[in-house]
Write a structure and sequence with these properties.
Chain A: It comes from Thalassotalea marina. The complex is a heterodimer of chains A (250) and B (81). Chain A is 36% helix and 18% strand. Chain A is an alpha/beta fold and 250 residues long. Chain A has one domain (4-236): NAD(P)-binding Rossmann-like Domain (Rossmann fold, 3-Layer(aba) Sandwich). In chain A, α4 runs parallel beside α10. Chain B contains three helices and five strands; from the N terminus they run βαβααβββ. Classes of the chains: A alpha/beta (250), B alpha+beta (81).
Chain lengths: 250, 81
């Protein structure tokens, strides 16, 4: 049962037919792991905390840097040199003290992934490199947890949902089969316009809330956002039987 | 003809959004790329980096065979965040 206070606090989403009190209860009972508390992790965590997701695990081993402040909107100038997950947790608790937040103040490696992922409902990728996404992809396939991928640089963004509980769902490695020739393009090397992260992070948070409330989401689709031309493109992705992560040859 | 589209930063890099290319001699994505690199030196640099390809709106590989009328989209993988 939702308390009177909860009914009021979340009233503007509870009034949506697709949410209702049942949806709100599902959010309250949910646990989400957000990996990376940078440009994508900031808006994703803020929206999930504000929406009343019961428990958030937020992981980042990095410190706030002055060059982050142009886009990582949870952080202030006084937070420079502080751990990102720690600092984000404080800001999120200010927004919503009812959310239980567990800070993982280090980079998620295989061991940590295997420790935390079995106990969450879904994982959100807010990392900034391919290696971390391979790791999350593999762990989510193994533990059968949905993974919501997002990435952004320059004026561009990409987004995709993987559902290992669906046999036909393509995985990250079906799209990016090898790290060979993998770009080292990140916000540090080629720059980023801050709000592009809000666009992609906003889509990731929306997909997460939908999954937690049992609403259908699209898998097997790579969404490409071009902020310079204000344009979305969608490409179908087939599960690759030859995929080394999810196919027959794994 | 093959309809070629460029998206996101690749479009900016090449200064081109789309072009049509005769399908003569083009059997797969790889041979299309070879034909494109001959069009302009810029294309050579652009296609030497990691690049994603979709044929008729479906993610594909460089080995994907092509036929006249196919739409081939190229765009960069985005990895930051």
């Amino acid at each position: 049962m939702l308390s009177t206070q909860e009914k009021l606090r979340y009233s503007r989403q509870i009034m949506l037919n697709k949410v209702g009190e049942q949806g709100q209860l599902k959010l309250r009972n949910a646990t989400v792991l957000i990996v990376g508390m940078g440009g994508l992790g900031n808006p994703v965590a803020l929206y999930l905390a504000a929406a009343g997701v019961g428990k958030l695990l937020i992981a980042d081993g990095d410190e706030v840097d002055i060059t982050n402040l142009q886009r990582q909107v949870l952080f202030s100038q006084q937070d420079v040199k502080l751990n990102k997950a720690d600092t984000a947790s404080e800001k999120l608790q200010l927004n919503n003290p009812d959310v239980d937040i567990e800070v993982i103040d280090e980079m998620l490696d295989e061991e940590l992934a295997d420790y935390y992922i079995p106990n969450v409902d879904l994982v959100i990728d807010c990392t900034d490199n391919i290696a971390a996404r391979y790791l999350l992809n593999k762990a989510c396939l193994q533990h059968k947890k949905p993974l919501i991928l997002g990435a952004a640089t320059g004026f561009d963004g990409q987004q995709m949902v993987i559902d290992p509980n669906n046999q036909e769902s393509a995985c990250y490695q079906c799209v990016f089969p090898s790290a060979e020739n993998a770009p080292v393009n990140n916000c540090q090397t080629i720059g980023i316009l801050g709000p592009i992260l809000a666009v992609i992070g906003g889509v990731q948070a929306t997909e997460a809330l939908k999954i937690l409330m049992g609403l259908p989401v699209k898998t097997n689709r790579l969404a490409l956002y071009d902020g310079l031309n204000q344009q979305w493109q969608y490409f179908n992705v087939k599960k690759q039987t030859s995929c080394t992560a999810c196919g027959h040859s794994k | 003809m093959i309809n070629v589209l460029f998206f996101a930063s690749l479009r900016e890099q090449l200064g081109s959004e789309k072009l049509e290319l005769s399908s003569d001699g083009i059997t797969d994505v790889q041979s299309l790329l070879s034909a494109l690199t001959k069009l302009h030196p810029n294309y050579n640099n652009a296609f030497n980096q990691s690049i994603l390809v979709a044929v008729n709106q479906e993610m594909s590989t460089r080995e994907q065979t092509l036929k006249p009328g196919d739409e081939v989209a190229f765009f960069p993988p985005v990895t930051g965040g």
